[in-house]
Amino acid sequence: MSAPLLTIEDVAVELPTPRGNLRAVDHVDLSLEAGRTLGIVGESGCGKTMLSRAVLQLLPKKAKLTGRVMFDGQDLVRLAPDSLRRLRGRDLAVVFQDPMTSLNPVLTIGTQLMETIQEHLELDAPAARKRSIELLAAVGIPAPEQRLAQYPHQCSGGMRQRIAIAIALSCEPKLLIADEPTTALDVTIQAQILDLLAREQGRRHMAMIIITHDLGVVAGRADEVAVMYAGRVVERAPTSALFKRMHMPYTEALLAAIPKLDAVPHTPLPAISGRPPDPTRPLKGCSFAPRCNYASGRCHEAKPVLTSAEMPGHLYACFHPIRMAEGIEA
Amino acid sequence: MMQLAVRPAPLLSVDDLVVEYGLGNKTVHAVSGVSLQVARGETLGLVGESGCGKSTLGRALLQLRRAKSGRVMFDGQDLTAMEGEALRRMRRRVQLIFQDPIASLNPRRRIGDIVAEPLIIAGVKDAAERKRRVHEVLSAVGLDPDLVAGRLPHEFSGGQCQRICIARALVLHPEFIVCDEPVSALDVSIRAQILNLLEEMKARFGLTLLFIAHDLAVVKAVSDRVAVMYLGRLCEVAPSEQLFARPAHPYTALLLQAIPVPDPDVRPAESVATGEPPSPIAPPSGCRFRTRCPRADQRCSAEIPALRQIGPGQFVACHHPLA
């Protein structure tokens, strides 16, 4: 195994709110090697986006971050703002959920692409322009030269997301963080964008983190998946192990709650009762215990830590892990 | 007139409905000649991507958006010809649930008042009777009336707000509810709760539903039949199982292929979909899907394919349907 490109060590993020401190990320450890894809899956408020912001050092000003984020040998948490800015956009790129708000509406697409390229790479304007056209062509935008003079509102949602990806890829990043990159898009466009990301990742040998609420998005595309719940990683495993031999009841419940295409209509869904805990209140035991079918007294008293399963690379945080020969039907 | 899967007297029958919006000096062809029928007690799923006109169709059924031409018959009465008091009276029997449950509740009003509002509009003057019915529906959707009636919407999560919206839609005991993307804004674990609740309410109150969504798996979970819409026209209508097992329209097949399956053994099909939907301002001639369709030929650009029956209950609007 090569040294990981990214190592997240004991990262915790707290946000002050009028109701007290909110535990957005609760002591998370993760690592990712070059050329690999990590999927981070969880529901709204589970901390998946805050965790990615911690990696990018783009947290809200009042947020309190502890722990270390080692990227390519440097601790991003302690890096000077200047060095960070040089890193972001070049080695460390991001694609956000909503391409309408991540692109500047009053600048042309060409200006936005060339700005990034010229900021980080020593290219003059004609060379940057040439590279912009190549990039737009690479992400599947027809007539790229004409597009350069257009504004974001003249493009569809799918096109805008392609442009955002082109900007992210413009400086050959080592790590691309895609935060819900397809959530705002239609299903046929989603498939195209996911294909595009996978293709460019393979071509550039970059590492990628896909953050999503949709287990379906990571199933076929991530090497490894981390499931987050209430700020913590509750299970982490190579993708096929996670789907076939999950140990964490939350993972099982989440997968079971998705309507399946091969199910007969009007089949009642095994819903997870209740909702996630209030992250401003202190929590004694396992955060999923109040909704868990397997919970015992111990689960409400003590917090389970991430434990290694029999399979290498498979970790789970549960006192009553599911043991099964074969996973539930996906 | 197109007859679709006619069972004894459909509760709702839509005939060649056309809805258009003005946009400057241009026209958005949102719904272009849709005909469908919904039998009493049935759930018809309506699927399509953004901008295909599915929400406009839902609103046009309830006369929230007036059609340019065509008819909407509800229980033997022509809604498109109705106005004023007659229409208001009819609206007690047809209700709507929206996608964003938080935005569709007035943040300054208490839950009890929000749910009682339709009763006041319908002229239920007896306050005790209103309270009784509000309690009945709030309990039905799984909320404790004594606990929630006095509170404000911001005190509730998205899933709970959707329960409140469902309670409000049910309080007049309607016969027909248009559910417009009712679970799209909700998390997976909450989505399952709301889908189950809708099924439960349908059985308990004897409802007929039009279930609009972009997620095929969600639609299949609750629908008896599914209609697939693309750029203002219906592509295919079929019983749920049949549509998913043997899609006849190339667009239905494309939608099915594009869904990410939560199973690592199912490799995502490489680039099944090409291109993007054209603008409804200038829809393609002939078949509207032809610009993205692998089977399209000259006939598809010249001739609008009519919705025709190809199997029991299965209708398709395509010159070159799949097997």
Low-confidence stretches of chain B: none
Unreliable residue stretches of chain A: 325-330
- CATH top level class name of the domain at 12-93 and 174-316 in chain B: Alpha Beta
Class computed from helices, strands and strand pairing of chain A: alpha/beta
Assembly classification: heterodimer
Radius of gyration of chain B: 20 Å
Count of spatially separate domains of chain A: 2
* Biggest beta sheet summary of chain B: 8 strands, mixed
Coarse shape of chain B:
globular
Give the mean pLDDT of chain B.
Answer: 91
In DSSP terms (H or I, runs of 4 or more residues), the helix count of chain A works out at 12
Short descriptors:
heterodimer, A: alpha/beta, Rossmann fold, 2 domains, eight-stranded mixed β-sheet, four-stranded antiparallel β-sheet, B: 323 residues, alpha/beta
Write a structural description.
The complex is a heterodimer of chains A (330) and B (323). Chain A has 12 helices and 12 strands. Chain A is an alpha/beta fold. In chain A, helix 4 crosses helix 5, helix 5 crosses helix 7 and helix 7 packs parallel to helix 8. The longest helix of chain A has 18 residues. Chain A starts with 5 loop residues before the first strand and ends in a 14-residue tail after the last strand. By secondary structure, chain B is of the alpha/beta class. Chain B has a domain of 225 residues: Rossmann fold. Helix content of chain B is 32%, strand content 23%. The longest helix of chain B is centred in the middle third of the chain and has 18 residues. Chain B is globular and about 65 Å long. The model of chain B has no long low-confidence stretch (mean pLDDT 91).
